[in-house]
Structures are given as C-alpha cells and as structure tokens.
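Local shape tokens

___
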Amino acid sequence: MTRGVKWGMVVVIGVLVGGFVATGVSLVPPSLLLGPCLRDWTSPVSYRPRASPLATVDARAGRTAVRLCYGQPSMRGRKVFGGLVPFDSLWRMGANEPTRFSTSGPVSVAGLVLPAGRYSLYAIPGVDHWEIFASRSTLHWGNDISAAVRAREVGHVTVPVEHLAAPVETLTISVDSSGATPALQVDWETTRISLPLTGAP
C-alpha cells in the first residue's frame, strides 16, 4: 500500500468520524457499524442444521440503531420456565451463542444506560419479574456465564413479567412500537417481558 493511499484512508476515516462527532449523524450504514449476527464456528453445533436457528432483530431508538442476535429454541412439549429454564438461575435468553446486543450510540434499555458497543444479555427469570444483565463479554459460549463473564457486567435492571393467555411455541424477540418509545418484547411459553429503548432524539 502506497503512502498516498494510506493518507487517503486516514482522511476518509477522519471525515466520517469528524462528521459524526460534529453532527451526530453517521454516514456509515448501521448494518456495517453493528456487524452481522455471527455463528460461533468453534462449536460443532454450527456445522449442522440447528434446532434453534439464529435470529436477528433490528430497531431504532431515536437516531440510535440497535441489533439483537439470539438463538430461537422452541417448547416442543417441554415446560419452559421453572423447567427447561429454571427460575432464579442465570440464563442466556436464547440458545447456543450468547444473546448479543449491539448499539451504534448510547441507549437506555429498560433504564440501563449502555454506551455504544457490543454486549451480551442474560437474565435471571422469576415468576413475576426478571433481572436482566449486560456484559462486555460476547465471545463465551451460551450459558457459560462464568465469574469472568460476570466480572465484565456493566449493569442490570429488573423488569416485570406479563403472563400471556396463550402459549408462544418459539422464543420470539420482536420490536413493539405501540408505546411512546420502542421496546424489545420477549415472548415464550406464557411469559412476556418488555425492554423499552431510549436513544438520542
């Protein structure tokens, strides 16, 4: 690479970063900033069809773009909460890889303020409320929420549980735009929790 090309790249990067700092508007597409939902190719699970496919949820909170990546397990006749997923124990909020949350800018998730970056989300489910944790660790496998992972936690919040009349077969995380602010809505079995998102206006 010639010196001229290197300086050209420096100038382009400087313009992109400077423009964002000055205006708060990024010229880089959020999909590139946040990155794809990557499989962990160190696991044998990634080399065969998955019973719990990898899903992507994209949302906007004001000018902030967020992306959630999670594995989608299904009930398949099993009791989920209080059975497959024990109450009062750490759970990855999905299957296989950790549930990963990326944000292009500062965002509040149910009151927990996260700077721009990548995180893993996990929970301690309860009958009437869940504790939601965010960690800077994103490369651990699934439910291996070790002391090292927990040491990188940036905070946690408690959210109430809504009990659904009809069961939801497959863990589904979607964007609920019906309220004053968008929210990530987590539905499985007869449980629902909502994580309101607030970003830069």
Summary: The chain has three helices and ten strands. Residues 68 and 101 are 5 Å apart (CA to CA). Residues 15-33 have pLDDT under 50 and may be disordered.
